[in-house]
Each structure stands twice: as C-alpha cells, then as structure tokens.
C-alpha cells in the first residue's frame, strides 16, 4: 500500500466532506431553482466523496493488519457520517428523494438528464484527480531519478579524479624506479672499476714483493756465499 496515496485520498475526502456537510442546513433556507442546484451539487460531491472512500478502501486492503484495523474503523465512521448527511439532505429537500432513480448496481442517485451530465462530470473530475496524482508521482520519480543521476555523475567525476591522481602517483613511482635502476647501473660500473683497480693493485703489490725478495736474496748470496 502506498501510505502517501492513502493520505492524499484522506485529504481529498476531508475537503469534500467539509464542502457538503453544511448543504442540508442550507437546503432548508432556500427554495425553487436554488434548492435544485444545491441538491445537484450535493449529489455530485456525495458521489465524489463515495469514490474517494472506495479508493481509500482499495489502498487499505494492501496495508498491514495493525494499520488496517485502525483505519477500517475510521472508514466505517466516514461511511456512517456520509450516510447521515444523505438522510439529512433528503429530509431538508424532499426533491432529493422524490426525483432520484436507482439503476441496477448504482450507488448514487440520478435525477434527470442534467444529473446524468453531472455524473459524467463527476467521473471526469475523479479521473482528473487520479491523473493529477499520477502526474505528481511521475514528477517526483523523475526528480528522484535526476538526483540519482546527478549523484552518480558526481561519484563518477570523483572516481575519475581519484584514478587520475593514482596514475600520477604510479608515473612518479615508475620514474623513481627508472632513476633507481640508472643509479644501480652506475653503482655496478663503479664497483666493477674499483674491483679491477683492486686486483691490479694486488698484482702490482705481489710483483713488488717478489722483486724485493729477489733483490734481498741476491744481496744475501753476494755477501755470504760468494767469496
């Protein structure tokens, strides 16, 4: 059940009831054509009010039982009040009861060909009210869709910006890795050069030591063994 739809129908009912509840008293104070017009107006509004109550009952059938029980009581009170107004109108304006005809399956009085046109106008008004409600619901749905689209667009923009920042971070990281690789290559070259110089220095040192040993051996030989 749409609680929003039920509340709208409830507001329409209250507005219609406020309009017709004083008509029986007014009918006592008027005569002739004015009374006839008042009777026709009452019948039109009474029919509209009854249709609104039917709509409320349809909405209420789909409601949870805890909600339905309380509102069913109110709907019975509305039906009772509406029936009392109809009886008061018949008592205030005898033409209301004498000129009405009951067709099979009909809930409302039909007074004449003029009243048939009034009934058509009543149906058109009910359809117009229903169409207005449907249009309002569609407008609200469109507004919600537009808000969701705007929020989605904003989220998409934020994601794109975040991805752009992450790409920049990845580019900077890649550049740092490239620089680190270059530095490592230069370090390896330096280490290889140092290693070669170290080996060369060791060889030179070994040669020098051998030469010194040879010279020392020659000196010892010449001094002690050669006579």
UniProtKB/TrEMBL annotation:
Membrane topology note: Single-pass type IV membrane protein
Keyword Hydrolase assigned: no
GO MF, any single term: SNAP receptor activity
GO CC annotations, alphabetized: cytosol; endoplasmic reticulum membrane; ER to Golgi transport vesicle membrane; Golgi apparatus; late endosome membrane; SNARE complex
Domain T-SNARE coiled-coil homology: residue ranges: 132-194
Keywords, ordered alphabetically: Coiled coil, Membrane, Protein transport, Transmembrane, Transmembrane helix, Transport
Segments of this protein annotated with the region Disordered: 88-124
Superkingdom field: Eukaryota
Transmembrane segments: 203-222
UniProt-listed Gene3D superfamilies: 1.20.5.110, t-snare proteins
Composition bias, Polar residues: 112-124
GO process terms (BP): Golgi to vacuole transport; intra-Golgi vesicle-mediated transport; intracellular protein transport; macroautophagy; regulation of protein localization to plasma membrane; retrograde transport, endosome to Golgi; vesicle fusion with Golgi apparatus
Alphabetical list of InterPro entries matching this protein: SNARE (IPR010989), T_SNARE_dom (IPR000727), v-SNARE_N_sf (IPR038407), Vesicle_trsprt_v-SNARE_N (IPR007705)
Locations listed in the record: Membrane
Record-linked SUPFAM superfamilies: SNARE fusion complex, t-snare proteins
PANTHER family reported in the protein's UniProt record: VESICLE TRANSPORT THROUGH INTERACTION WITH T-SNARES HOMOLOG 1B, VESICLE TRANSPORT V-SNARE PROTEIN VTI1-RELATED
Family assignment from sequence similarity: Belongs to the VTI1 family.
Protein name as catalogued: Vesicle transport through interaction with t-SNAREs 1B
Organism this protein belongs to: Cyclopterus lumpus
Lineage summary: Eukaryota, Metazoa, Chordata, Craniata, Vertebrata
Gene this protein is translated from: vti1b
């Amino acid at each position: 059940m749409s609680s929003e739809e039920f509340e709208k129908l409830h507001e329409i009912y209250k507005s219609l009831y406020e309009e017709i509840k004083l008509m029986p008293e007014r009918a006592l104070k008027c005569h002739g054509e004015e009374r006839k017009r008042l009777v026709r107006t009452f019948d039109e509004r009474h029919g509209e009010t009854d249709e609104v109550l039917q709509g409320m009952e349809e909405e209420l059938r789909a409601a949870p039982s805890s909600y339905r029980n309380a509102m069913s009581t109110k709907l019975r009170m509305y039906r009772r009040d509406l029936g009392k107004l109809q009886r008061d109108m018949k008592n205030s304006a005898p033409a209301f009861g004498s000129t009405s005809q009951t067709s099979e399956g009909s809930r409302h009085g039909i007074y004449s060909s003029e009243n048939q046109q009034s009934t058509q106008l009543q149906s058109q008004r009910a359809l117009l009210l229903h169409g207005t409600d449907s249009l309002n619901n569609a407008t609200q749905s469109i507004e919600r869709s537009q808000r969701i689209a705007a929020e989605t667009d904003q989220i998409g923009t934020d994601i794109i910006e975040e991805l752009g920042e992450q790409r920049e971070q990845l580019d900077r990281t890649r550049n740092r890795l490239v620089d680190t690789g270059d530095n490592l290559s230069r370090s390896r070259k330096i280490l290889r050069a140092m290693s070669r110089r170290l080996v060369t220095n060791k060889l030179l040192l070994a040669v020098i030591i051998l030469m010194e040993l040879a010279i020392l051996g020659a000196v010892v030989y010449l001094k002690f063994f050669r006579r």
